[in-house]
Specification:
Length: 515
């Protein structure tokens, strides 16, 4: 920005901070949206924000840009603290030329990303932009490339968090997709490669922006977003909460808090929740709440692939990542989406020194042509790869059943679990007793006078011989069979025991993840 004649530095700064001006700010509020600066004020600790590059200006002279001022170049950048922890932030300003990204806008974001990486602190991007600034052509596209490159270099080094707080279209969507966690807000967030008009022109299909790329779409269907919030304030508070579980960078350990006991269970505790009958459903989240500190679980990706649960909690005051099958949804089977969801979460935890606790109740992989044609083999391999690659402490509890390849995939000892525990009623086998008996004893059953009676006898026989934790325990695949009431204490003790774990791997540039 240029100073007007006689204008003081202070008044110049105040004018720059107004962004597109009072009318544009009013329009932003009428849409139910906060301004970029209001968002930063709610996200960061009070009086902690230090802005940089307030006076950055574009140098474009094409298509009417000569002499046109864009305050702050449509993005506010700087640093601050969240819960006392240093973070670097950028917030796109929709009031200033729609928050469109041009050369100078991109350079501001690149600068703040470089500072975050060099100082080992999280980067948080608040996205609200009309996309690439058409007037700047390839300079805008090159700016996106610079940002994507830094997203990739920072991956696994510092936590990267994106909030979509308005439109996010075209090339703009890829930076959030490259970051670790994406937050969206009902009614105001939209992400898509091509908007509704292009979709209609190319395919003839009519779809609203909300249907095409709204918060519900990306939280439930595509899995692009991890969190769906009712409003901006709850979104920004959720980001603050997420950061409380994370270290500042990959060289540090997650923050610790005071241990808080979970809520008092019922008379039977976990026994009240988990049915002995392996065919009966239950909610694994209720089990998690009886195990973790304060009974509090910060779930990630709650609406996508709900047959598997991932999220953060604390055990003995320490952050842990929890991966658990959800019997309540599809019986807890593994499939394409659940494999993708879990493997990405596992890799994040491993990158940032967050131990993994795995709660297993899995009947196998979801069968069918849709899964096979969709590449369930390739997607399922991601889970195997992620667990095998992870060097953080890994503790697995077999809660009820673990059949076939899914037993292996859910962090068995063979994939590097440090400890594998099982409850007394756990069933561990190549397949369920019913299916196994039908195959192994089919001739005896078919030739029997009373086939169903014989079948039930054989099912019982198979269950007693193989579908119990003792067989796996004798082979050393289960390290202990524990009572329900001992679960929390045993997990905490195991994680304390593994707190100094160190693993060396063969030198390599990188592995070839089955994407």
């Amino acid at each position: 920005m240029k100073a007007k004649k006689g204008e003081t530095l202070q008044s110049l700064k105040e004018r720059a901070k107004l962004g597109g001006g009072s009318e544009k700010i009013k329009s932003q509020h009428e849409k139910g949206k906060l301004t970029a600066r209001q968002r930063l004020e709610k996200l960061l600790d009070p009086d902690s924000f230090m802005e940089i590059n307030l006076f950055t200006a574009h140098r474009s002279t094409d298509l009417g840009m000569e002499g046109r001022e864009v305050p702050g170049e449509g993005v506010v950048t700087g640093s601050g603290t969240v819960n006392g922890q240093l973070v670097f932030v950028f917030a796109q300003d929709f009031t200033a030329m729609g928050g469109t990204l041009g050369e100078a806008h991109a350079k501001k974001i690149v600068k703040i990303m470089d500072l975050a990486l060099e100082n080992g602190a999280p980067i948080i991007g608040l996205n609200d932009s009309g996309g690439a600034r058409i007037q700047e052509g390839v300079d805008a596209l090159d700016g996106y490339g610079d940002i994507f490159y830094r997203n990739t270099i920072a991956s696994g080094v510092i936590p990267q968090i994106a909030a979509i707080l308005g439109p996010c279209a075209g090339g703009a969507v890829y930076s959030p997709a490259l970051m670790d966690f994406t937050f969206m807000v009902e009614g105001i967030s939209q992400m898509f490669i091509t908007g509704p008009q292009v979709v209609k022109a190319v395919t003839g299909q009519e779809v609203s922006p909300e249907e095409l790329g709204g918060a519900a779409t990306h939280n439930q269907l595509s899995g692009v977003a991890h969190f769906n919030n009712a409003d901006e304030e709850s979104c920004l508070n959720a980001i603050r909460e997420l950061l409380s579980y994370l270290p500042a960078n990959n060289m540090e350990n997650p923050p610790e808090t005071q241990t808080e006991e979970p809520p008092a269970p019922g008379p039977q505790g976990i026994r009240d929740i988990v049915p002995e009958d392996p065919k009966r459903l239950y909610d694994m989240k209720e089990v998690i709440r009886l195990i973790v500190d304060g009974g509090y679980f910060f779930e990630v990706h709650p609406y996508f692939a709900p047959n598997i649960i991932v999220g953060f909690a604390r055990l003995g005051g320490k952050s842990v990542g929890i991966v658990a099958n959800q019997p309540k949804d599809k019986g807890g089977v593994l499939d394409i989406d659940s494999s993708d969801k879990a493997s990405r979460f596992i890799r994040f935890c491993d990158a940032f020194n967050i131990p993994l606790v795995n709660l297993v109740d899995v009947p196998g992989y979801l069968p069918g042509t849709e899964q096979e044609y969709g590449g369930v083999i390739r997607h399922g391999a991601k889970l195997l790869y992620a667990y095998s690659e992870a060097t953080v402490p890994k503790v697995t509890l077999i809660a009820r059943k673990a059949y076939g390849g899914a037993f292996v995939a859910m962090c068995s000892q063979a994939l590097g679990a440090d400890f594998v525990f099982a409850w007394p009623n756990a069933e561990i086998a190549v397949m369920g007793p019913e299916g196994a008996a039908n195959i192994i004893y089919r001739k005896e059953i078919k030739g029997a006078e009373n086939p169903e009676e014989v079948r039930q006898e054989k099912i019982k026989e198979y269950r007693e011989l193989f579908a119990n934790p003792l067989v796996a325990a004798r082979r050393g695949m289960v390290h202990d069979i524990i009572e329900y009431e001992a679960t929390r204490a045993r997990l905490i003790y195991s994680l304390d025991l593994l707190s100094c774990k160190k693993v060396s791997r063969p030198p390599r540039k990188h592995g070839n993840f089955p994407v």
